[in-house]
């Protein structure tokens, strides 16, 4: 673009659990001066609220009726991403095993997705320099006009090994089975399932270091920016 500030760039990064979406998105956003949005944290936050407020997470109509109640706020600084529910910092409690085991059921409810999708679009629309948004349906549903769409993949074995390393001592086979189960639920739900957009660039990270994945995505974003 001539004689003006760079136009904001919108980057969508999707993929199954443990493929490196969060680590890659945060690093890319930091390097390029963009905002960062972790949409999984938003679905975890609404799930945490449902559990804390006694909503039966096996009852889609109870979830749908309560979907509009919690006030979820995401901070988009990639060096300090934050998430609050009704003003309370929930960054730690949304990562518990209980929330992880229930989030796919809650996020499958159409009323939940409509609410969170609206929030995501308004955050992306107000990011002055642009934003990296990571999740499961960003390229397909939330931001179908994103400037760049990336779909990260990795073998279940690689993903389980990465997660077990994080969870210090967790059984790799159990971790692998849990990842596969969550991916299956996320990929087969009716509303906005986990899917690669037709125009997304697929990056298989199985044999790549995190630094290599980050470099690859930074290059792709820079190419898009130069072409704008
Ligand atoms: N290419 C890679 N090589 C080795 N480890 C990696 C790579 N990418 C990410 N990791 C590590 O794997 C773990 C999972 O990464 P990350 O949380 O970024 O994945 P994710 O796709 O966001 O997962 P989820 O969807 O479950 O939140 C982290 O510990 C991260 O440091
Ligand atoms: N765009 C998205 C993002 C996430 N979800 C659901 O949230 C769960 C947790 O995501 P993490 O990235 O924090 O592991 C995920 O398993 C999905 O159920 C979603 O539906 N759409």
From TrEMBL:
It is found in: Cytoplasm. InterPro entries: Cytidylate_kin, Cytidylate_kinase_dom, P-loop_NTPase. Its EC number is 2.7.4.25. Keywords: ATP-binding, Cytoplasm, Kinase, Nucleotide-binding, Transferase. Gene3D superfamilies: P-loop containing nucleotide triphosphate hydrolases. The keyword Cytoplasm applies. Residues 11-222 form the Cytidylate kinase domain. It is an enzyme of class 2 (transferase). GO terms for molecular function: kinase activity. Its main location: cytoplasm. Belongs to the cytidylate kinase family. Type 1 subfamily. HAMAP family: Cytidyl_kinase_type1. NCBIfam families: cmk. This is Cytidylate kinase. It comes from Streptomyces plumbiresistens.
